[in-house]
Amino acid sequence: MIKVGIIGGAGYTAGELIRILVNHPDAEIVFVQSSSNAGNPVTSVHDDLAGETDLQFTAGMPLKTVDVVFLCMGHGKSVEFMQENNLPENLKVIDLSHDFRLKREGNEFVYGLPELNREAIKAAKYIANPGCFATGIQLTLLPLAAARLLTSDIHVQAITGSTGAGQKPTESTHFSWRSGNVSAYKIFEHQHEGEILQSLKQLQPGFDSDFNFVPIRGNHTRGIFVSAYTKYSGSLEEAKILFRSYYASHPFVVVSEVNPGVKQVVNTNKAVIYLEKHGDKLVIISVTDNLLKGASGQGVQNMNLLFGLDEKTGLNLKPVAF
Amino acid sequence: MIKVGIIGGAGYTAGELIRILVNHPDAEIVFVQSSSNAGNPVTSVHDDLAGETDLQFTAGMPLKTVDVVFLCMGHGKSVEFMQENNLPENLKVIDLSHDFRLKREGNEFVYGLPELNREAIKAAKYIANPGCFATGIQLTLLPLAAARLLTSDIHVQAITGSTGAGQKPTESTHFSWRSGNVSAYKIFEHQHEGEILQSLKQLQPGFDSDFNFVPIRGNHTRGIFVSAYTKYSGSLEEAKILFRSYYASHPFVVVSEVNPGVKQVVNTNKAVIYLEKHGDKLVIISVTDNLLKGASGQGVQNMNLLFGLDEKTGLNLKPVAF
Amino acid sequence: MIKVGIIGGAGYTAGELIRILVNHPDAEIVFVQSSSNAGNPVTSVHDDLAGETDLQFTAGMPLKTVDVVFLCMGHGKSVEFMQENNLPENLKVIDLSHDFRLKREGNEFVYGLPELNREAIKAAKYIANPGCFATGIQLTLLPLAAARLLTSDIHVQAITGSTGAGQKPTESTHFSWRSGNVSAYKIFEHQHEGEILQSLKQLQPGFDSDFNFVPIRGNHTRGIFVSAYTKYSGSLEEAKILFRSYYASHPFVVVSEVNPGVKQVVNTNKAVIYLEKHGDKLVIISVTDNLLKGASGQGVQNMNLLFGLDEKTGLNLKPVAF
Amino acid sequence: MIKVGIIGGAGYTAGELIRILVNHPDAEIVFVQSSSNAGNPVTSVHDDLAGETDLQFTAGMPLKTVDVVFLCMGHGKSVEFMQENNLPENLKVIDLSHDFRLKREGNEFVYGLPELNREAIKAAKYIANPGCFATGIQLTLLPLAAARLLTSDIHVQAITGSTGAGQKPTESTHFSWRSGNVSAYKIFEHQHEGEILQSLKQLQPGFDSDFNFVPIRGNHTRGIFVSAYTKYSGSLEEAKILFRSYYASHPFVVVSEVNPGVKQVVNTNKAVIYLEKHGDKLVIISVTDNLLKGASGQGVQNMNLLFGLDEKTGLNLKPVAF
Q1: d(Cα D313, Cα D170) in Å, to the nearest integer?
Q2: Nearest to A179 among B167, B170, B175 (CB)
């Protein structure tokens, strides 16, 4: 049994981790820390878990009692956590914030996108779990980068559900505003661009084309829909072979013949990829659940790899479908 | 031209008043007061009015420059307003809060439900505009009360859109929580019960049956759906005649032969009423827009009556329909 | 391994069965029959299953190859199925239609509500799976009926998601109509009333109070929200003890201290029950997922009981939560 | 009074025309033709009009009794109508289908985008009303084309509400499928591309850059959100001056300093345009209501121009806002 601690347990990503881990056959939650909720039952925040767990939020973080901790705090807090705590030698850390996603001197975290870095993840101690947009977008581009075929500008639009904006009620997550609404934000300036480009350059070192990204707020709760296109000189069939080959060993990525809707992956850790060719351009669609493949599901996928388990353990989740 | 002031101009009901009044042929907005937004354009809060108005929020309330003020502040603030201001002799006041809805000694406000009190409203100086649930529910019961036929327990369930909860983002108006969700609140204890019973007793003085009311939060933005039933010894046809006769002179109430959906009145000041008889019970459905017939639209309807205009002036609103 | 056949495999309830059974540790789907889709992959209809199954729809029904069949056809078709087929001696049948829910001479089906009939189900050969509204409503009333405390009129309103109306596109499931809409239908005349009253009389033979039921179409996809009330002379604490005691051995029913929203059970087989007392009336809320506890989840729960498995096997489903 | 006939009166665009025209001060609906609904009240289909009109659908089309007809039939039917009917000399025709949008020999229809062709519309007899995507997209590009600044590839993504798909229930408008869903369709192949390019070339004759368009199905009912970008060598301020100058005389187009959401124009005939500059690219956002500025509202705007009225007559519509 892998013993798990969760730090910052009241937010959406922590809730999803708990929902997955209460049914994970090889893991056991030892503590769920939350300063603001210490002493209360976990179900006081994550009410859908009523009947599933008797855990209470803790104030403390008994790091010695666990094999791995998930960091689910706000961006910036993970750096503080790593600096302020003397971590047990064998403790693994999976960080869901963006604090350690970008390579820089002294950053010991491996970027936790299994479809890019599976072997490095297996050997890692610390994992920087990718961002949600970053996951959905990279999955549309990795096979092209691996084949060094990204030689032209990339055009990406991606539409996210409201859970991407977190638990705190704000103007742009107010139901009266968001229901039936569509809007763009951080146009060409989204903070996930850095990790995306880093991955593309890892696979295709000389990559220097423009990356144009328009992020959109949709009026659904879960799911990221990505449409990307770039010039591609091969045929559609060649592209399908390229993508199928790249993802053949990656169990959560399905290259589909059918144009997908985002809802077909909601509540799963899957990504569905779909390709079309028009003129000289290859269009690639991906759909993922921003809280699962884009956050907590991928976190558990990484945990499975860190501990030598089958990648899918505990992640055969029933899609919500409707 | 009726000169209008709006006090508490940043909230939903003030926004709706402005949306109606910018196209009202016989009224003109002189000021829109908002402490927290003073100096900013009205469109900085009500962005859909871009291109419709150049008004700026004011800090002050130049009461002498207007014929009528709408009070759109939080509950409790209207009492303060009336106490702290020396109102010009001829100033009319339409209060959208619940502060003056209940009769008590010294309360000079007329309860502003035109379908109950039209003549009194015409002669009034101060109007207490009804609550949104209270409006939708009373419209299902007034004809029965007027005929003194409310002799048995009344059972009401009503489902409200999120705009009924106001502009401040909260847990229960968070899109991620509310989308696709249904929940009850203030079961049998909603604050609108007082004004409903007051009206029923006004029409049927001895009324003392139980009034059972389960309020529900729906996952739409606008509209209140009411289903009510009580024992009724007449036939369905007699009930229809009773309701049609009662509402014959009330232009915003339609007694329909077709079971309505709430959306068919959204963005209008209308109420649609529908009747069925089952066994010894009469079922009455009403649908209204909580922000219009349930708040600001009814406020303008009252203003029209106060100033001798046709009740519908400025209120021929295009339904959103979809 | 329980060998399973599904008949009428293209509809919503069949899809949900497949989604559950592909991960059920002790069951295996042998065939999924669908006349109109024979020869096509199951994922051509249930696209979210891409990557989860290679099954193809069959035209035939090889009944001898399975231990149990689920009947997922339209109402009326199950009667035909039972008449026209010579069933293998040991074949169990779980019927999701309403064809066999009402007791009558020659009806060998056991009514499959485990919280009412668990022991009979264990010993049964044929199961009539309850209706979705019927499940949600009965769970609010069974403890009272078992204690013979239903001595006064019962008032029920229940709001259902669109999946309750099935897969065929109709006017009332058109997105443009239903989004943001609320409407009532079959007021006091819903076809589930029969099975509800049958169960209440099973527990409380002399029951003869009025049962008043207003069904509502909500604008969500999954979930049934029930509010029920009736006179009850005990205290709230006594009621809670009564309900907790009744459901103590039933793992899918949670009696909660917190007023629930329907979404907290979506994509699970759970029911959450909540109680309030006001004056002489007890209010009981229940929330369930109409496709799971209200249909296919309960079907698998019944299958587990039929084959001597733990009731929860394969039904530890991750809630969608948002 | 302009006398109006509507042909194909049961669909969404006809319904919107009626909703506008019942309150238009200078127009009067003489007949609403619908073969399948002849003899029934208009409110039997457009139920939100209950209490607003007593019109009945007609089987016949008494063209001599009207000054203008709106053609609201399916695509292809308007060609038939023009061929099969001997139109009165002075009858104006406004066609909402795509039949006459593209210039070709013998096509006497003027393309009815007032922001492109206002003077030609005023002098026209027959108007081809633009498509909904086409309207929203052209409004992001016309000022650049007029200044002959479209010298590089254009990248467009646009998200439409479900009403764009019309009234007939289909798989992709089924509430259970579409709620919470996002999907692409007709990628790079949407039928509106022709009219868009025709307009761009009208203003900038040598235009021959690539036009890349990804259409998206959103999960709202009304509204089109367009994001477009292309290379632009000027500054953001210069772009704003260009757009403000182009639209200065067009009362329905607002160039905003604030990043808009689509809902702020829902139920209005307005378009809000918003600009950002990033690197060498100009990003242009537009939001419109697909049934109004994208269809029936623009139809009435064209009618106003045809008959010498102020362009906004009857089109001061209350936004739904929420």
Answers
A1: 36
A2: B175
| b/e burial code for range B266-287 (CB count within 10 A of at least 16 → b) | bbbbbbbbbbbbeeebbbbbbb
C2-129+295-306 belongs to which CATH class? alpha beta
Residues of D with CB under 8 A from a CB of A: 155, 157, 159, 161, 176-177, 179-185, 187-189, 210, 212, 214, 216-223, 225, 227, 229, 259-263, 266, 276, 278-279, 281, 283, 285, 322
Question: What does the pLDDT look like over A140-185, one tens digit per residue?
Answer: 999 999 999 999 999 999 999 999 999 999 999 999 999 999 999 9
CA C156 to chain centre: 18
Which residues of B are known to be catalytic?
A: 132
Question: Would you identify the CATH topology of the domain D132-288?
Answer: Dihydrodipicolinate Reductase; domain 2 (3.30.360)
Choice among C4, C10, C127, C132 that is catalytic: C132
What tokens were used for C277? 């007392």
Task: Parse chain D into domains and list their residue ranges.
Answer: 2-129+295-306, 132-288
Rounded to whole angstroms, how far apart are CA atoms C182 and C217? 6
Q: Rounded to a whole number, what is the largest CA-CA distance in chain A? A: 61
Q: What is the pLDDT of residues B222-276, one digit of tens each?
A: 999 999 999 999 999 999 999 999 999 999 999 999 999 999 999 999 999 999 9
CATH of range A2-130+294-306; options 3.40.50.720, 3.30.70.330, 3.40.50.300, 2.40.10.10: 3.40.50.720
What's the whole-model pTM score?
Answer: 0.97
**Contact check, Cβ <8 Å, D221/C180:** yes
| Phi and psi angles of residue C99, each rounded to the nearest 5 degrees, phi first | -60, -35
**ipTM reported for the complex, 2 dp:** 0.96
pLDDT, tens only, D265-297: 999 999 999 999 999 999 999 999 999 999 999
In terms of Cβ atoms closer than 10 Å to its own Cβ (0-12, 13-18, 19+), residue C23 is middle
Q: Of C22, C161, C318, which is closest to A267 when you measure between CB atoms?
A: C318
Q: What is the pLDDT of residues A182-228, one digit of tens each?
A: 999 999 999 999 999 999 999 999 999 999 999 999 999 999 999 99
Instruction: Give chains near A: 3+ CB pairs under 8 A.
Output: B, C, D
Contact (CB<8Å) B15/D321: yes
